[in-house]
Design a protein that fits this description.
Blueprint lengths: L5 E5 L7 H10 L3 E6 L12 E3 L5 H12 L4 E5 L6 H10 L7 H7 L2 H10 L8 E5 L15 E5 L9 E3 L2 H18 L7 E6 L4 E10 L2 E9 L13 E4 L5 H18 L4 E10 L2 E8 L9 H7 L3 H9 L12 E6 L6 E7 L1 H5 L4 E6 L6 E2 L10 E7 L2 H13 L2 E5 L8
Parallel strand pairs: 1-2, 1-4, 2-3
Antiparallel strand pairs: 5-8, 6-7, 6-8, 9-10, 9-12, 11-14, 12-13, 14-18, 15-17, 15-19, 16-18
Helix pairs in contact: 1-9, 2-3
Length: 416
């Protein structure tokens, strides 16, 4: 059975972003072949799908490629960072446009991406060292300058990213990262971390689309909260950016150079930078759109979603650049204490604040709250739409001030 304007979408069945892509595709008459490890609880409207087991990616690739022969697929995408590489491998097998697997492996590893930027001659790259967490630490830290930031190589959402101001702190931090990796993975491999020079300055995020050697900027977010550490949990995003246009263009050019250094050639780009001393320091370039539910801000402000933009561009369908005619902001509600959630107070007052569009809570009573750097799940989001980024930010802060998360201690269960 063939379909025109078809896209294969690879995602685990519980992916929170899969349904958004499916909705976006339906809006534009694009058929989705959903490739997952189950079908039951995504959305009832799915009637085209391929079931695979992601525990064996080589076998999954074989099944996907053989199954997609029955469809006229124009692109293979994944909204989940874990399967972007698999989507590229399938695209290569089917001779569809894709980023190279090599480039995706670089951007998914913090050390490899730093090495790539440095080797390409980009000067605004912090000094960095790869640390083996299985070996004696102090002997590996002789060249480190302080303050510095230690990071796991492949965790997202700033998990395990911690600042240290001297060698004693850094050794404690690296031991903590080691424990986080053992919690996240049964057998973490490699058991490594990267330590890099701390860069002072303001932090910003760029959302864009890479096509034919150019980077189209969808928007630049400011992060108005100072991110000095010791942990780097993200909170407020506002747009349009309050940076001068000349600096915004400098960000775009720097990210484009970084994409070229990594070998990325197409598709959505989410990048994090710091602006300091008239330099743009690249913190991260990811070959995907913004994570979490932050991207929903586009749908609220423009009536068109970021996912619509991505899938239309993927099949060469004409689509206008998302243009935020109003200012907008989103707060990733921070976790302030560990515990088991009992209730959230003040939601009605938080929702009633001027310029607040929505207060959305994603945790229910009885779920666990875990602070950063061990944590990685936000309890919810607050969205604002206003006539300036300053007012959008003020609305988020006023709204959040009304919320109170009431928790009980997460006590260990004693087994007799």
């Amino acid at each position: 059975m063939t379909r025109t304007n078809s896209i294969a979408l690879i995602a685990p069945v519980h992916s929170y972003r899969a349904s958004v892509y499916l909705t976006a595709a339906a809006k534009h008459g694009i058929s989705i072949i959903f490739i997952s490890d189950g079908f039951a609880d995504v959305i009832p409207a799915i009637n085209e799908g391929i079931r695979v087991e992601f525990t064996d990616l080589i076998e999954a690739k074989r099944i996907i490629c053989e199954s997609l022969v029955a469809y006229d697929v124009q692109a293979v995408l994944s909204p989940d960072e874990k399967f972007v590489e698999l989507a590229a491998e399938v695209s290569a097998e089917l001779k569809l446009p894709h980023n190279s697997v090599h480039s995706l492996r670089i951007v998914s590893n913090k050390y490899l991406s730093r090495r790539s930027l440095k080797d390409s001659g980009i000067d605004a790259v912090p000094d960095f060292e790869l640390i083996n967490l299985q070996e004696r630490l102090d002997k590996q830290l002789t060249e480190i300058r302080y303050p510095c930031v230690a990071k796991p190589l492949n965790l997202s959402a700033s998990r395990g990213v911690i600042r240290a101001d001297d060698q004693g702190e850094l050794i404690d931090v690296l031991e903590r990262i080691k424990r986080i990796l053992h919690t996240e993975f049964e057998h973490p491999n490699p058991l490594q971390a990267m330590v890099e020079e701390y860069v002072h300055g303001t932090e910003h995020a760029l959302e864009g689309y890479l096509h034919e050697g150019d980077l189209e900027v969808i928007c630049i977010f400011d992060k108005p909260d100072p991110l000095h550490g010791p942990y780097f949990e993200e909170t407020y995003y506002t747009t349009p950016s309050r940076l001068p246009q000349s600096v915004q263009e400098q960000i775009r050019k720097s990210i484009l150079k970084g994409c070229d250094a990594h070998g990325l050639s197409m598709g959505p780009i989410h990048a994090e930078v710091r602006v300091s001393d008239e330099k743009v320091w690249i913190l991260e370039i990811a070959a995907r759109s913004i994570g979490g539910d932050c991207g929903r801000i586009f749908e609220l402000a423009t009536q068109s979603s970021l996912e619509e933009f991505v899938i239309c561009r993927a099949i060469g369908q004409t689509v206008d650049t998302l243009s935020l005619e109003q200012a907008a902001g989103v707060l990733m509600i921070p976790v302030t204490e560990n515990g088991i959630l009992r209730r959230v107070e003040g939601v009605t007052k938080a929702q009633s604040v001027d310029n607040v569009y929505e207060v959305r809570l994603d945790l229910r009573e009885g779920e666990k709250l875990v602070r950063w750097p061990e944590g990685g799940k936000y309890p919810g989001f607050i969205y604002s739409i206003a006539d300036s980024p300053e007012r959008a930010e003020a609305a988020l802060r006023e709204s959040y001030a009304h919320l109170k998360f009431v928790c009980m201690p997460d006590l260990p269960v004693l087994v007799k």
